[in-house]
Amino acid sequence: SAANYATANSDRQSFWRETVVPRLGLYEHVINTQLFAPIGYMLEYHPDELDVMQADEASRAGSLKLLVDAGMPLRGAMQTLGYKNIDETLAMTGPETTTPEAVPLPTEVGDNVEPTASDLPILATPTAARSIAFGLLTKKIERRIKSGRDPRCHFDSDVITADEVKSVMARLSPDSTVSDVANIIAEVKAVDDMTPDERRIYNAIAPELAKRGQAWARQITQNKTVDPTLKDVIAPVLNAELATQMSKRIDTLGTQFDIPMDAGEESQRVIDWLSDYVPMTTARIDQTTADRIKPIIETYRKTPGMTIDDLTALMLPLSDAARARMIAVTETTRAAAQATVEYQQYLGKAGITMIRVWNTDADEKVCPICTGQAYGVDLNGLTEDQWPADLADGPPAHVNCRCDTSLRLVKS
What we know:
By secondary structure, the protein is an all-alpha fold. Helix content is 59%, strand content 3%.
C-alpha cells in the first residue's frame, strides 16, 4: 500500500541519515590520505545526490532566497546550499549585484528616546555599519531594561537582518539584565568574525539548522512528534572538517619541531579520536536540543493563538546562525587542542617529553575563564601541570572558546 511504501522509504532515509552519512566524512579522509593522495586523486562523497536523499528543490530555492535577502552574495549562497555548475548558471543569469560603495546606516524605529544614526558619518564598510547598528540595538534594549520594560522590542535596520534581530529577542526574557544584553548581542554578532576553518563548518551546517528549526515548528503545530536529531547534519561535517584540521595542525607541529609524524600513524590517531568524539558530541548536542524543545512545546500547548511564526522565533536559539557559529568555533578549537595532544604523545613514544602551554592570545575577546581570573591565576603561559582542575583537558574552556595550546620541551 501507499502507506507501507512511504514507511519503507522513510526507514531507508533514516538509515542513510543516521548510520551511513555521519561516517562518510571519516571514510573520505582515510581513503584520500592512504590511497588516492599519493597518486593525485581525490574521492568526494555526495550522498545528497542519491535518489533516497534528494532534497525538495522548492525548499532549497526558498533557502537560497532567504540567504540572498539576508545579504549573502548569490555565489556564496549557492555554494552554501550545494548547487552545482555555479559559474555556468551565473553566466546565464548575468553578473551578480555588487555592493555599493556606501552602506546606509540603520534607521531604528520604536521608542522616540532612542539614539539614531542621523548624526553619524556614512561608512563604506558593511562591518563598521553593522557594528554601529548592533550598538544602537544594544542601547535600545538596555534603556528598556533600566526603565522596567520588557527588553524584547521591535528594531528596524538596513544592515542587520530581521532574523538576527529575532535571534537577539529570542535570547532575551523579562528577567534579562543589562549585563546579559552585551553577551547576547556578542553571541549573535559574532557570526561576522570567523576563521576560514570555522567558516567551512558554519557554511555547511547553518542552512541545515535553519531548515530543522522551521520543520520543528511545523511538526509542533501539526501535533506531530518532534525529532530533535541533528546528528545526520553535524556528524559528517565534523568528521570531514576536524580530520582535515587535525592533520594540518599535526603537520605544522612536525615542521616546527622538525620531527614529522608518520602519515599512517597520524591518520590512525585522527580516526581513533574522531570515532569516539564525534558520536559523543553529536549525542550531547541532540540531548541539549531535545531538552530545550520540550518547554517550547508546552508553551505552544498552553498559549491559545500562538502562530507558526511565534514558534519559529522561539526555535531560533536552537537553529539560527549563532548556534551554527558556536559549534564551528568550539569544535575548531577542540580539534586544534587534540591535535597538539596527539603530537605530544607521539613525541613521548620517541622519548621526547613535551608539556602543553595554555595560550589565551588566540582571541582578542578574552573572558575571565580564559584569563584565569575566575580561578585566581594568570592562565596565559601556564603549563598543563598548573592548570585549574576544571581545565585539565585543555581548550576549549567553554563554548565559543578560542584559546590555544603550544608545546614546550621538558629538559631532563
